[in-house]
Design a protein that fits this description.
Number of strands: 0
Distance between the termini: 21 Å
Largest sheet: none
Shape: elongated
Order of helices and strands: HHH
Radius of gyration: 20 Å
Number of helices: 3
Length: 95
């Protein structure tokens, strides 16, 4: 009999996580811009201007740029998070 333990674990794939996070951030950005337009007294656009380089309030080109940058942030998080998660998952699976 083989005394070695077999460790089965599932790793995260950065591609579906990147798409999911990217789309989540795009939806959140669109909802926040819509909220700012409906309730200008409670607007968050100054935060968007700090978080999204080149974003200004509110032109079509700036809106599209905000969508692109929001999606890119989601993909960036997936590219950093997945390898870290997979590394630690492997490390704890050995114990």
């Amino acid at each position: 009999m083989n005394s070695k333990k077999s460790h089965h674990y599932h790793t995260l794939d950065w591609r579906p996580l990147g798409l999911a996070l990217g789309i989540f951030f795009v939806i959140s950005f669109i909802l926040c811009v819509t909220f700012d337009l409906i309730f200008p007294g409670q607007a968050m656009y100054e935060s968007w201007m700090r978080l999204l380089p080149g974003f200004t309030w509110l032109t079509w080109s700036s809106f599209i740029l905000g969508i692109i940058e929001s999606f890119a942030y989601g993909f960036y998080i997936a590219l950093v998070f997945c390898p870290l998660y997979n590394f630690f998952k492997r490390m704890f699976a050995r114990k």
